[in-house]
Design goal:
Length: 110
């Protein structure tokens, strides 16, 4: 259903960052790395750079996608570190994000 909604949107309308992130997760779960990457990149690019939490979440999601491709692993790790710094700056509000980043780095940053 979300894919149909996204397809019917006005292509000139500003992207819905949350929708792009959800579609990226769906594409990743279906094993479509190229589509997941495109959607995650679009989601990050559409974020307000002054919204620290939003940008951190988008970096985390993009890094999860990039981490599936060995050539993109260094960028994934870099994005995770950037996301972690942002989550740290959010103090208690960033705790869950920090935990997600730390878990991913522990499992993937060899």
């Amino acid at each position: 259903a979300m894919v149909l909604i996204a397809a019917e949107r006005d292509p000139n309308a500003p992207p819905d960052q949350t929708g792009l992130t959800l579609l990226s997760r769906l594409a990743l779960a279906q094993g479509n790395l190229a589509q997941a990457r495109t959607l995650a990149e679009r989601s990050l690019a559409a974020r307000d750079p002054n919204d620290v939490a939003s940008v951190a979440e988008a970096r985390l999601e993009l890094a999860k996608v990039l981490g599936h491709t060995p050539a993109d692993k260094p960028r994934a790790v870099e994005l995770m570190h950037q996301a972690r710094e942002s989550f740290v700056s959010l103090h208690a509000d960033g705790r869950a994000g920090r935990q997600a980043v730390d878990a991913w780095l522990a499992a993937n940053a060899q």
